[in-house]
Amino acid sequence: IETLAKMLDLQVDETEKIIKQLEAKNVILNYATVIDWSKAISDEKVTAVIDVKVTPKRGVGFDEVAERIYRFPEVKAVYLMSGTYDLSVHIEGKTMTEVARFVSAKLATIDSVISTTTHFMLKKYKHDGVIFEPKKEDKRIVVSP
Predict the structure, then answer these.
(1) Half-sphere exposure of 12 (CA within 13 A, CB side)
(2) Rounded to an integer, what is the distance from CA 89 to the centroid of its chain?
(3) CA distance 74 to 15
(4) pLDDT digits (tens, 9 = 90+) for 59-70
(5) Can you tell me the distance from the alpha carbon of 17 to that of 15, in angstroms, rounded to the nearest whole number?
(6) What is the pTM of this model?
(7) 57-61 long-range CB contacts below 8 Å, 24 or more apart?
(8) What is the pLDDT of residues 72-95, one digit of tens each?
(9) 64 class by beta-carbon count within 10 Å (0-12 exposed, 13-18 middle, 19+ buried)
(10) Nearest Cα to 48, choosing from 78, 86, 90, 81?
């Protein structure tokens, strides 16, 4: 809070009051820590992004099917998208097989789901504005004529 107050040129108690108001109005929903899990634990999880094409339901559009999907514990995020696919579903599993089972047994069996395309994340370079592997200093010797 002290750092924010300095950045905003406000008193600490005033900054704290504003933060509490924003939390009460649900403007600030959560505080998150970005962790490089590949360095923290040995049994990394598999992350997949699944493009889902659905038939929207009369009166509720995409909201009802999105809610059915985001209620699964494997699902970390669901976004309504423009373009070829309607929903982007981000999930985590212990193995690729577990992710495949989720898609075939849970996601694809929902009535409104027409098709899915699964993309497995191979490596994270940047997430939530945090670069995972900062650029290394170039240690080559400069050669000039």
Answers:
(1) 3
(2) 9
(3) 37
(4) 888 999 999 999
(5) 5
(6) 0.67
(7) 57/112
(8) 999 999 999 999 999 999 999 988
(9) middle
(10) 90
